[in-house]
Amino acid sequence: MIRAVLFDFNGVIVDDEPVHLRLFQKVLKEEGVDLAKQDYYSKYLGMDDFDCFAAAARDAGKPKAEAKIQEMIARKSKYYDEEMATNTPFVPGVLDFIRALAPKYYLAVVSGALRREIEMMLTRGQVRDAFSAIVAAEDIEHGKPDPEGYDKGMQLLNRDYVASADLLLPAECLVFEDSIWGIEAATAAGMPSVAVTTSFAPSALPGAKQYIQDFQGLDPQAFLAKIA
User: Fold this and answer.
1) Predicted confidence (pLDDT) per residue in 137-168, tens digit
2) Which CATH superfamily hosts domain 4-15+89-227?
3) Which CATH code is given to the segment(s) 17-84?
């Protein structure tokens, strides 16, 4: 039985992967590094900002020091705020889906995005209070496909919200993801996953229990019953 639902953020709640690509390209270009769209989607999409900047610069033969990468992250975050001031690309149906889940399931976000970006968009979508826990880029040492983020998400729910006599098990935590790295992370954590095909075709996302284009028309209880 599914008792908790853990959402990736980019490409699952907010369909902003194209925005992140443009901003990665913009910041890297300012540093003399070109980033091709194909390389972003095949190599870097599942990474947090630090790992993406570090890997893209290193692969281009122009590695950056940690302090420089942190400055690049801050610059990209500023650009993201400016972009999202007039752009709210929520995945169709996701806000209603979250609101319908909230009374009966424990909810968490597990993402390589910055916490402030996650908080900003959840608040704008008026669903921040639906989530019991958020695991962001700042909270983990190893990004997806490492299971650390999903392990930590379940630990937070168990520590702060679930009675010790009734702790969540990994198999009771359903994950929504849009990348192969995220699905691999969920699988490594022992959690079933649903692939949201905003960024990749179903054929590029093996291992998911179900595939959806978006959340429009999904009845949460009926859908989750298919996974159990």
Assistant:
1) 999 999 999 999 999 999 999 999 898 889 99
2) HAD superfamily/HAD-like (3.40.50.1000)
3) 1.10.150
